[in-house]
Amino acid sequence: ETGVTQTPRHLVMGMTNKKSLKCEQHLGHNAMYWYKQSAKKPLELMFVYSLEERVENNSVPSRFSPECPNSSHLFLHLHTLQPEDSALYLCASSQLAGAGTDTQYFGPGTRLTVL
Amino acid sequence: LAKTTQPISMDSYEGQEVNITCSHNNIATNDYITWYQQFPSQGPRFIIQGYKTKVTNEVASLFIPADRKSSTLSLPRVSLSDTAVYYCLVGTLNNNAGNMLTFGGGTRLMVKP
After folding, report:
1. What is the mean pLDDT of chain B?
2. Which of A30, A96, B7, B99 is at a distance of 20 to 30 A from A48, taking alpha carbons?
3. With an 8 Å Cβ cutoff, is A100 touching chain B?
4. Residue A98: how many CB atoms within 10 A of its CB?
């Protein structure tokens, strides 16, 4: 248990569906992240929120839409996805320490399958 | 962001010491070196972090030479449960922008009985 929870753990959706992934951190952190991990590929950083403001968007298609309503919650809204979007979606959080680098705590991930 | 290079895979046996080396030739002055472990279908888990010389915790040791262009993660007396992918990351914290780390392909460690 890392203090970061994700729901649902598994999701199957059609290409025309709209769904949302939820992440919640119980660590009092002030930065949250979405990553995508496809089979046999490295983790890809998708979005970063720092103090509830989005600070990074690595050229992610607009069919992925993040939302960070407060420092403890992060959502990833999905619509009109493609089969190649099937992957493990990981949420992480960290505490901005002000120096050096901080440790990211990852949730268990949501295994997404797009049919 | 500094690029890292590590072996794709390694095999070991229970009870052996395992050393995984990571190259990061263009590491910047403010960069730290961090290692994560990932089991299948789980998120990565922090193992150890260092800036220079040697760092040791209850799980592993991290050796960093003076030029900091490489680092070695050392796992003492591995067990079957240490079978996982190990990622070496190099990066620094932008106070306003969070932790901009890039995960490479990692090293898949297989521990055999």
Report:
1. 89
2. B7
3. yes
4. 8
Q: What is the tens place of the pLDDT at every residue in A6-62? A: 999 999 999 888 999 999 999 999 889 999 999 878 888 898 888 778 876 668 999
> Inter-chain contact B105–A42, Cβ cutoff 8 Å?
yes
How many residues are given for chain B? 113
Q: Please, what is the end-to-end C-alpha distance for chain B in angstroms?
A: 38
Q: What integer pLDDT is reported at residue B12 of this predicted model?
A: 97
CA nearest to A54 within chain B: B97
DSSP state of B77: S
CA distances from A47 to A32, A38, B87 (A): 8, 16, 20
| Rounded-to-integer distance, Cα A14 and Cα A79, Å | 9
Question: Residue B5: how many CB atoms within 10 A of its CB?
Answer: 13
The nearest CA of chain B is from the CA of A67 a distance in Å of 16
Shortest CA distance from A98: residue in chain B: B95
**pLDDT 10s digits, B57-105:** 999 999 999 999 999 999 999 999 999 999 998 877 554 555 566 777 8
